[in-house]
Amino acid sequence: MTLRPMKVTTLICSYAMANAKSLAASLLLVAVAAHGNAQENRPIAGLEAAASHRAASTLELVPGRTVTRTAQGQHAATYHVHVPADFDPDVPARPILIAFSPGGDGKALLEKLKLATDPVGWLLVGCDKLRNGMADDDLEIEIEDEILADVLKHVPHDTQRIYLGGFSGGAMRAYGITARRAEPYAGIVAFGGWLGGPSYQDAPYRENMSVAMVTGVRDLGASGWVTIDTKTLKQRNCSVKHFCFAGGHSVSPPKTTRAAIGWLDEQWSKKTQANEGNGKIPLEVLYVGKAGSRADDFLSFLSEHFVSVAATNASDLTLEMVNRADVLLLDQVVRSLPDGCTKAMLMMGSSAAMTGERYGSKIDWLCQCLDNEAYSVNTSHAIFQGPLPVSPTLVEKRCPHSKLKIQAWKVEEPQKTPGLVSSRKHFASAKDSEIISGGVNMKGVSGVPLVREAHRFLWGFVAPPIEMTEEGRRVFVNSLAWIHKFDGEVQREFAGLHDRNTIKSVLESPYVSAENLPRWFPESLIEQASGDKEAIRNHFANRMDFVHVPTGSGLLQIDREAEQLGTPIQDPASIEKWIDMLDGDQSKLAFGLLQRYTRQRIRRKPKQWREWFASNKDQLVFVEDQGYRYVIRPKDTPPAKVMQALDNTGESQTELTEVSPVLFQRGLAALHTIEGVAYQYAGWKVTLVIRARVKDGWHFYSSTEDNGTNIPTEIQVDLPAGMEFVGEWKVPRSVDGHLGDDATFQRVIRLGKTPVDRTEISGSIRFQACTDKKCLRPQTLNFTLPLTVMAK
Q1: 468-471 own/partner pairs: CB under 8 Å, 24+ apart
Q2: Is the model's pLDDT at 5 over the cut of 50?
Q3: Which residue, 65, 95, 360, 788, is most buried by CB atoms nearer than 10 A?
Q4: How far apart (Å, rounded) are the C-alpha atoms in residues 269 and 281?
Q5: Cis ω before 387 (30° cut-off from 0)
């Protein structure tokens, strides 16, 4: 479909005027049994009510057959209508799904979708002629209108239950039609589609629709827009649900498509019911854990708060169950989900780390040493605000492990099995994550038990509801409800993935048995090798240049597409080769590799890729543990800890002006920085970092060069008793004594051997800002940096 500015040319006709009121529909999954049994055919939701909302028909429809018609109008556009086997023209009208193909082949798309619409008794229409890349926008709209007018006039249907759908650009077309036509569209089913990018986010899409987003876990293009598009549609009061399947950019298999269509059908039925859950939270929760008293306690407790709760064991978990649920509660290690599955989930205790490792999550096993209390709790966070009201009780005490003075929040009663904390450093600066609290554990502030990463929520505590505090139970419910908001969000930042050297160390270790191999390698490879480590070693031999961990996976494997092209993934020269291939027969393959390893949102345009590569090739660095991808990293970029220290200062957001053309970020690069406070162990070192932000056309002066006319920058620092400098200042290079944007000063400080709950390092920066024509008066900036010195 052509990426064009949205034209809002509302079509008002007698049909639209008679049915101007849009009816809401909110997405719900197909009714799959708790252990994944296939859905039986059932009556159409709201069939009786449809009797008064029937559109007249002049088209002869035969049950179980597909008929083709040419729409009235000058463009002679054809469409195909598939009729369900149980169709009876004398009973109330049926829902209708009008679908669009990116290639303009409506019948081929119809063949893929009819296995899903037949079981629920929907009429299905596949539209021809409309395809991606049409050059004439006005012509495109004329054809859309001719087909839709003809379908709605000649195909009998429930006028309040018109659904649009499509694959890829066809899905984008479906969204766009709701923004410019007046029919009361009940919903959309979008396969690998998007709204169209940034310029399409403000279009007036139909309000109160149900939208089923169906995306293959390897469809990086469509997946990248799920979160943004979901937010846009929810602002239009649409209900959105995500369905995933083990595939790439394609229409989903029949099972997943049936789940999406069935969800739309069930949602309509639910909407027409007077009782929407007796005040319970309108979410379906699937508990995954071992059967027994613990599972029974969870089911009983969750049923008090959510409209639907089901349970299964990890070994019985199916993708159909996952797609049916709104939120997963994982109380057991899960390894059976497809790579890249983005279902909203809350993961408990140590099983969270083992599940996380399997799918490349930053949620790692720092330590299974979490007690029953949290501290450094962000009590203003959404999980403390609702749906259930809660005011956490904070008690001042000393942490038994770090000896720090803390405000402790009791989450549960003491447990025989300790909970899990993950590495704070993995989440501290990650844009797809947020830390909610620390916890009382043997790793101190380095470990976190409550944290969100994309669609995952780590609840590191382990108690069942009966052994949680009342406040803990309420926050647990709130956390399940809150993480659902991130359903479909893709993890974008990585840490701690297995690198290629892991293959050698694992296969040579006497402590790794065949039953442990699934931690590092796909089950298919292990099965092919019959669990033999030597056979796995031979599989990777002479192929290390093509080893990677795919996005959404945590397992080492061969990238067969890169291998097929003979392009080592960690060699920047391969990027240039892939770009050159965009002009040839391997275009699709090369484009996929470019997206996979650069994560750039650039279309399949060789010129745009060449411009990007020319601008960044000298700064490209391939990282393995952070996602097997190329990152743009200027050679003089300060270390990550330095950047993290500076990120905690407000000057990074303050606007540079003619009055204040030079500002300074300052911070302490330490073990951790939490809410602006640096944490480091007694006797260890921290680095004082000062970094300048300078407006274009301005400069300030070096601290080491004085020509008698300039005013050198002076930095004075007062250290608390027991601390000392280690070495001199590391100063930035100047040009003729001038310093500009990003100029960074660093100096190492050794801390005293005595722990201190809170101390401060204070100082001042004296500088003068100038242009080539004028100088401002010298200024002095005072600063204070808080620091906690911890016991080892």
Answers
A1: 468/411, 468/412, 468/413, 469/410, 469/411, 469/412, 469/413, 471/390, 471/391, 471/392, 471/393, 471/409, 471/410, 471/411
A2: no
A3: 95
A4: 18
A5: yes
pTM of the model: 0.81
Degrees to nearest 5, angle at CA 467 with 463 and 439: 50
The count of other CB atoms within 10 Å of the CB of residue 528 is 13
Instruction: Specify the 3-state DSSP secondary structure of 363.
Output: coil
pLDDT at 1: 44
Give the whole-angstrom CA distance, residue 507 versus residue 503.
6
Q: What pLDDT was estimated at residue 47?
A: 42
CB 567 within 8 A of CB 593: yes
pLDDT beyond 60 at 30: no
Q: Beta strands 405-410 and 394-398: pairing type?
A: antiparallel
The CA distance from 158 to 147, in Å, is 18
Over the stretch 733-761, which tens digit does the pLDDT of each residue have?
888 889 999 899 999 999 999 999 899 99
The string of pLDDT tens digits covering residues 239-291 is 999 999 999 999 999 999 999 999 998 888 877 664 455 789 999 999 999 99
Residue-averaged pLDDT of the chain: 88
With a cut of 90, say whether residue 46 has pLDDT above it. Answer: no
Q: Which two tokens stand for residue 789?
A: 């010195």
CB–CB of 457/393 below 8 Å?
A: no
**How far apart are the C-alpha atoms of 162 and 164, rounded to whole Å?**
7
CA distance 261 to 30: 7
Is the predicted pLDDT of residue 29 greater than 60, yes or no?
no
Furthest-apart CA pair in the chain: how many Å? Answer: 99
Neighbours of 95 (CB within 10 A): 27
* Residue 587 Cα distances to 97, 103, 578, 593, 594, angstroms: 34, 18, 8, 10, 10
Residue 508 contacts residue 500 (beta carbons within 8 Å): no
Where would I find the beta strands (DSSP E) of 143-289? Answer: 162-167, 185-191, 210-216, 239-245, 281-288
pLDDT at 132: 93
> Could you give the CA distance from residue 661 to residue 767 in angstroms, rounded to a whole number?
12
For residue 286, give both structure tokens.
């699937």
Mean pLDDT throughout 6-14?
35
Share of the chain above pLDDT 70, in %: 89
> What is the β-pairing status of strands 738-739 and 629-632?
unpaired
Q: Residue 206: helix, strand or coil by DSSP?
A: coil
Handedness of CA 275, 278, 282, 287 (dihedral sign): negative
Residues 377-422 have pLDDT tens digits of 999 999 999 999 999 999 999 999 888 899 999 999 999 999 999 9
Are 309 and 303 contacting, i.e. CB atoms less than 8 angstroms apart? yes
**CB-CB contact of 302 with 285 (8 Å):** yes
Q: Please answer whether residues 205 and 164 qualify as being in contact, where contact means their C-beta atoms are separated by less than 8 angstroms.
A: no
What backbone phi and psi angles, to 5 degrees, belong to 202?
-100, 10
Q: Spell out the alpha helix ranges (H) of 556-677.
A: 560-565, 572-581, 587-598, 606-616, 640-647
DSSP designation for 148: H
d(CA 259, CA 215): 13
Q: In degrees, to the nearest 5, what angle opens at C-alpha 557 toward C-alphas 367 and 36?
A: 75
Q: For residue 414, what are its two tokens?
A: 């003491």
Alpha carbons within 13 angstroms on the beta-carbon side of residue 581 total 20
User: What pLDDT score was predicted for residue 272?
Assistant: 64
Q: How far apart are CA 475 and CA 457, in angstroms?
A: 13
* Residue partners of 513: CB distance under 8 A and separation at least 6: none
- Asked if 285 and 327 count as a contact pair (C-beta separation under 8 A), the reply is yes
Is a pLDDT exceeding 70 seen at residue 2?
no
**Which amino acid is residue 616, in one-letter code?**
N
